[in-house]
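Q: what does this look like with adenosine-5'-diphosphate bound?
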Amino acid sequence: MKILVANLGSTSFKYKLYELADTQGGANPQGERMVAKGGVERIGSDSSKAFVEANGRREDMVIEARDHAAAVNLCLGQLANPAWGCLKTTSELAAIGFKAVMARGISGVRLVNDLLLRAMEDCNEIAPAHNPPYVAAMRLLSQKLPDIPLVAAFETGFHQTIPDSRKIYAIPLAWSEAYCVKRWGFHGASHRYIGQRTAEILNRQDLKVISCHLGGSSSLCAMIGGKSLANSLGMSPQSGIPHNNRVGDFDPFALPLIMRGTGKTLEQVLADLATRSGLEGISGHNDLRDIEMASAKGEPRAKLALDIFIEAVRHYLGSYLVALGGADVIVFTGGIGENSTLVREAICSNLGFLGISVDAKANLGAKGEAAFHAQDSKVELWTMPTNEELMVARQTRDLLLAN
Ligand code: ADP
């Protein structure tokens, strides 16, 4: 069956078109083929970059994608274009799977319907950068392609194994259940993939893995045997490590001070924390590449943003090493984790006392799936491209076959 997987990041839209054998459950590398992939980066700017890749051919273009709905439209146009030969018509699709973030009272893998969209909309305030574009894209597609099932694989599903001791906030307990105020955890598809792929590469099912997904959104996840035991993202995707423009961990008692000082309403301050904070709030730059360049040129705010980001990752890394009783492997993924040699080196520096030691040359050369730990390092260090779309494609297939 052919499944299109749509992955909407905070500023990006990526898709992959898969052909999967009709067999249920887990990995089946022989029965899986990616037919095409593409995407749009820097959505919201007047020079968004789009690409499509299929049959060994790639085309890059600069387009204007004002929002995620425009980006989804572009993708559908490309796949149904005979020049690419990917789909004769869109009705060839068995389903479109979405790497969805969260819905009130719903997790796991579900067919998209009105009830589910409303449950997602109920979380718009909690996930303002993610849920509104997802709901908009899902509504657009259910109008344009009413015969194709839409499937939501929720990011929170993978973290259902996190114990209550790491899930419950120290608030009056009744609030946790009544208002769904818990550390749900996110980036589930990415961490699930890293857990599975690391086990495949090292041929061990019992590994203690710390997955560092560092990108526009960032989170760390502690796993044993591929099961999540902790995730740095909390009730909302704004928490944990500072993100490109979202705040990260923050003390709610600062809110009245900021409201009084700025004269802004609670909604306005929350919007600032969700769109004008994080690395951008500190440095004035939204993209880590720009922050690294500005820091190298001596911009103090850029250097501070880098230091804060690195310290936040090390904070969770230390916590998860204690929670797991040491790690077998630390994996770096996401746009920053895969590409920034500077950030990887800084995160792992001076951790010899924990058995973590970088091979500086290997780190500089690490691309794709590559180890960069020193020979005497007790903990293996890897870079690894994540594959969230493959996880969603498999989950979508399993849901269709189970129904
Ligand atoms: P998203 O969370 O939006 O899907 P990605 O995982 O694609 O984002 O990561 C995007 C981020 O990765 C960019 O904002 C940029 O900061 C960072 N990045 C990409 N390439 C590099 C690079 N070569 N060096 C440093 N950072 C990079």
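The radius of gyration is 21 Å. Residues 204-383 form a domain with the Nucleotidyltransferase; domain 5 fold (CATH 3.30.420.40).
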